[in-house]
Write a structure and sequence with these properties.
The chain has 355 residues and is α/β, with parallel strands linked by helices. It has three domains: 9-237, 3-Layer(aba) Sandwich (Rossmann fold), CATH 3.40.50.150; 239-268, no CATH class; 277-354, no CATH class. It has ten helices and eleven strands. The chain has helices spanning 9-16, 21-29, 48-68, 76-83, 97-104, 167-174, 204-213, 277-299, 307-319, 330-342; strands at residues 88-91, 109-113, 120-121, 124-125, 135-136, 151-155, 179-184, 214-221, 231-237, 239-245, 257-263. The strands form three sheets. It has a seven-stranded mixed β-sheet with strand order 5-2-1-6-7-9-8.
Length: 355
């Protein structure tokens, strides 16, 4: 086990003040009375003129915050994830806000931008605070030996692309490491129709290259405006294996063919069971009802379907590791039992010791 890191003077100074003023100011901005109905801005029933007014106010606040801090808002979960992936090298750091927050949290990080004065945001140079130094450098710094074991951090890498080149893609081509942290929008989450389906923060070429050579381990939603789908995602370089198809030995022109396939360990496969909140609630209710009905029908005839007996049988099955209940939570089991007992007027004392 490595010894705990000593806090730098920068870290101590940051901790004595607000370590993440962007998050606090973003949350305070949402309290603006003019933005009280912001959640309905894209609701078809909202008046277009009202939508335009909200949009203008939102963009005014948003631009001020971006110019002051960064493109994306760090939150606690994002910072904790980054801690597990240090050392980190950031390219396209802008003013260095993310680097400053991470260093303040004790993360080992070096941040680079084409301009050591603080990078470009909105086409303007912004001078970062002196407490955290942004080093001058582009994607070529990733070829340096000191960064070969670092995690690459990219935040909105192509948002300010002027000549059509992709900083994100250039970084991928030079990066030799295993893990990458991407902050921004990714396919297919873009809300503006004109930017669909790849979003505005990185080019399609970068996203295709990323998903070809890496696989996603985790996605964290970040604080964001309604028109954004900004997340922090963690990616790991994917190992590939070859499948060789032997050519016909009797045919001189028939050579062996080889196909490459990704190998993603079972524990690194991102859960495919994704569901929106509305459908999750609906399906959970259906599942619990079916489970309760199944026990009532299977265990007891209609004349003897005591709620207490059904609940007891259900708990017994959970104890025995019934595969039907592997994915059922304690809360769901309790709700099912309560449902079983409701009609008979019996009481059920929740006891999770059977888990």
């Amino acid at each position: 086990m490595l010894p705990p890191k000593k806090k730098s003077k920068t870290s101590e100074k940051t901790d004595n003040h607000n370590p993440n003023p962007f998050l606090q100011e973003f949350e305070s901005t949402l309290l603006d009375p003019a933005l009280s109905s912001l959640s309905t801005i894209f609701d078809p029933s909202t008046d277009p003129l009202k939508r335009g007014s909200m949009w203008t106010t939102m963009c005014s606040h948003g631009e001020d915050l971006v110019n002051k801090y960064a493109w994306a808002v760090p939150n606690h979960e994002a910072i904790e994830v980054c801690k597990k992936l240090e050392p980190i090298v950031e390219v396209g750091a802008g003013q260095g806000y993310w680097g400053r927050c991470l260093e303040g949290a004790g993360v080992e990080i070096k941040s680079y931008d084409v301009s050591a004065e603080g990078g470009l945001i909105g086409g303007k140079k912004k001078k970062g605070k002196e407490s955290f130094r942004v080093l001058e450098g582009d994607s070529s710094v990733l070829l340096e030996e000191e960064h070969e074991n670092s995690t690459l951090l990219l935040c909105f890498p192509d948002e300010d692309s002027i000549d059509g080149t992709s900083l994100g893609l250039s970084c991928l081509e030079n990066f030799p490491g295993t893990h990458l942290i991407h902050i921004g929008e990714l396919y297919p989450s873009s809300l503006p129709v004109s930017q669909a389906p790849f979003g505005r923060t990185s080019t399609p070429e970068f996203q295709v290259a990323l998903s070809t050579s890496f696989h996603c381990l985790k996605v964290i939603p970040l604080p964001r405006w309604p028109h954004e789908s900004t997340t922090l995602s963690v990616w790991k370089r994917t190992q590939t294996v070859a499948i060789t198809f032997e050519g016909d030995s009797d045919d001189e022109d028939d050579e062996d063919e080889e196909e490459e396939y990704k190998y993603i360990p079972e524990g690194e496969v991102l859960d495919d069971n994704r569901c929106c909140k509305d459908w999750s609630t609906r399906l959970k209710g259906i599942r619990m009802t079916l489970l309760a009905d199944e026990f009532t029908v299977a265990k007891y005839p209609p004349s003897d379907s005591s709620g207490l007996k059904v609940a007891t049988a259900l708990i017994t099955s959970v104890k025995k590791g019934d595969p039907r209940f592997v994915q059922v939570t304690d809360e769901e089991i309790s709700i099912i039992c309560q449902s079983c007992l409701l009609k008979s007027g019996e009481n059920f004392t929740e006891d999770k010791s059977w888990r």
